[in-house]
Amino acid sequence: MEVPNTQENMMKCICGKCPTFVAGDKGFFCSTDKSEKDLEQMGCDCGGCPLWGEYDLNGGYFCTEGKAG
User: How high is the pLDDT of residue 20?
Assistant: First the structure.
């Protein structure tokens, strides 16, 4: 399911706490699309995000694979 790009959803986002996240990146990847940075997959916290259950998401590593939906 697509995650709406809203301020409320952005506030729920946990990308910034993920081991793959790189400081200075935009985050909120499940809604906006993958990072423009060259990321090394160091672990994925997508399954622990409140948006995961709320929008019945599948997969993970939205930061390297692209947005959900």
Answer: 98
